[in-house]
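For consistency, the fold was encoded as tokens, which produced the following:
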Amino acid sequence: MRGDLVRKLTVRCLSAGLAVLSFLVLALTSAEPLGLALAVAGAVAVWLERRVNPRADLVAEPVLLIAGVLVGYAHRVPEARLNWVALALTGVALLGLTLAERPLRGAAELEVRAANLGVRSSPLLVADRLGPAVLVLLVVLAGTAALTLPVWPALILTVLVGAGATVGAVGPIALRRLRPSGGQSAVTQALRRHQPEFLLYFSAPPGSEYQVMMWLPYLERIGRPFMVLLREPNFLPTISAATRAPVVVCPTPRSIDEAIVPSLRVAFYVNHGAKNSHSIRFAHLTHIQLHHGDSDKAPSANPVSAIFDRIFVAGQAAIDRYARNGVTIPREKFAIVGRPQVESIAVSREPIRDRADQVVLYTPTWTGHNADVDHCSLPVGETLVRKLLERGATVILRAHPYTSQNPASARQLARIEQLLAEHRTSTGRRHVFGADAAKKMSLVDCVNASDALISDVSAVISDYLYSGKPYAVTDRVGEGDRFVEGFPLAGSGYVLDSQMSNLDDVLGRLLESDPLAETRWRTRTRYLGDFPEQRYADGFLDEARRQLDSAAAAPTVPSPRPAPVS
């Protein structure tokens, strides 16, 4: 996070500094060759800043560069050969393209785009290339001035770029605004040919793609054509690369109308994002909440779940959780389907004390958006890890993807990773952390490679429960005896108090005696359902197909409710 900020600040200073310096040299001195060289360097710096920070507002720098090069051209070309009309037209055209880029990009980003569908959005492609094209034209104009060549070639190239932008972006956008497609857009037609029976709807902050990635393999195993509907374009490259299904980005509520084709009957959701309401307005669809994890955290009993037609849960414990939190939802809305993502977790009944070279998986969660859901143990994580190292354990450290959003948490995590790196170097013990644990290994890989878990309150615990191996839970809210009442899953684990004062005792029970072994197996059924291990995912697959068949048998498709205001 800090490195990213440094890169952005560096290129910001570089592009702005070179733009100002080149203008001053060209406007106030007679050192035109130096000024033109600085202008070319400034254009390269602006291009680099676009790569580092695509959302940067880059208008002032190109305008300064263009103005400086125009002045330099006027100074360098003899009066007798200077065509003031052509130079003025070139400057106006370049400035016009520069000023038009941002609004054109804004308009293009409101267009529907797709991947894995054979359809491309020409307005967005043109908008993406307009900024770099202006920089290339600027370099051409600077070269023309340096060589004292006529300005007409630069003017012709600028006019051609402007014409291309008009034909490829401005025209199509204007035409769509004036003449709505009425369901005949290229994306809509391609989706009609694909005939998807269900969609996965997703809207979330950056870094949340894991919520979709965990479900894609199981949606594909349903064996019916489907699509993914995204609201934020930043997820498109990652998610479209992870599935063969069409992935469509609908930036506005109204644009969703283009993607909801008649063959659709069911919509799945993986979170309680505010934009879910933009899809739930389609009353003819059966709306099913899948969640992206099952834990005793408050979000797993969100009252918003009541707006869905069906709620798929892993086990009876999830249904009880809603009731325990005062959320009244009719029982018939729930379907116990297990948590298919755990099917590849190896189940072990071997006593923990019999395992040599014990490996402990530590999964600190993030701080959450407010104090009520802050269960992060990273402030005391270094104490915990040092104690594990003293016991001769190998540590797998896998932090929550959102950890970097909190600078304090990021620093705490970095210190723990440094501790593990130093210990690995000095002892040869194969600790796993950083990208090796978060990207090279899946959560299932981490679970299978470990003998015990230490976790904060999170969905990792219920996933780990499937393995049958022991776990400990951190009580970061300091509730003491009341902690298990609010977080029942901790009752089958060993609870670490908020200050780690009982750390030695908990580690002794976790890694040696394990008196809660039998309790865990009973809890496992309550939380994860009672499905055969060999066909565990069939609980979800069979229920999903049942909902699709039921929705397909439904009568007439009504019109959608009016689109909400974005």
In short: Confidence is low (pLDDT under 50) at residues 561-566.
